[in-house]
Amino acid sequence: MPEATIQFPGNIKVNKISEEIIYKAFAIAIEQKKKEIYKELKLVNSKIKRWEQKYKMSFEKFEQTLGDGFEVHNDWMDWSFLIENRNQLLEEIRNFEIA
């Protein structure tokens, strides 16, 4: 089981905080973080969809047919950044899954 260390400000009396309160605080913090990740994932997916609509293909297909033009190369860089960003967000989500 993973462990965490908590440092409380000096004005909080640790001996008066129950394990239940700490558990609930962690649960709230985790749910908030998951909401933030899903919100960011939704934004990234909408940007990826715009690229798919522009080129009428998936990123994988786009990479296979990539031309030599400056604009196309810049688009590939922007689009690949979004794909990597999405993969990182999905990995973060998996980190919250219960084993």
Structure description:
- The protein is mainly alpha-helical.
- The chain has a domain of 63 residues.
- It is built from three helices and no strands.
- α1 runs antiparallel to α3.
- The radius of gyration is 21 Å and the shape is rod-shaped.
- The mean pLDDT is 87.
Q: What's the helix-strand series?
A: HHH
Low-confidence stretches: none
Gyration radius, to the nearest Å?
Answer: 21 Å
Task: Categorize the overall geometry.
Answer: rod-shaped
- Class computed from helices, strands and strand pairing: mainly alpha
Put the structure in a nutshell.
The chain is an all-alpha fold and 99 residues long. It has a domain at 37-99.
What descriptors fit this protein?
99 residues, mainly alpha
Topology of helices and strands:
Elements: H1 19-55, H2 59-64, H3 70-95
Helix pairs in contact: 1-3
